[in-house]
Amino acid sequence: MSNQFEFISTDPSISLKPGKSSLIRSRCMQGKNKRESSRRSQRAIRRAAATHKAESSTKPDLPSVQAIPPSLNDFALIRFASDIDAEAQGLIFKAFTYNVANPPSPLDRCVDFDYIESASFQWYFSDAVFLHSILFVSYAINDLVLPSWDGQPGRKMVSHLRKTLALLARKMETINVHEDEAVLHVVINLALLAVIYDDWKAAAAHFAGLQKIVQLRGGVDFLRSRPKLHLKLDRLDLAWSLSSGNNPFFLLPITSWEPILQLRLSDSSLYQPPADWDIRLADLFRDFQLLAVTINENVRKHARYNAACFQTILSSLQSRLMYLESPHHDSIEELVRLSLLALLTTTFEVPGRKIPYIWVAKKIEKAYIGAIDSINKNSKALQLWLLMVVAISVTRAEEDWFREAWRAAGIAVNWAEAKKHLTNVIWIECIHDRAGKTVLQQLTITREAADWSMGMKSWDPI
Question: What is the Cα 450 distance to its own chain's centre?
Answer without folding.
Answer: 42
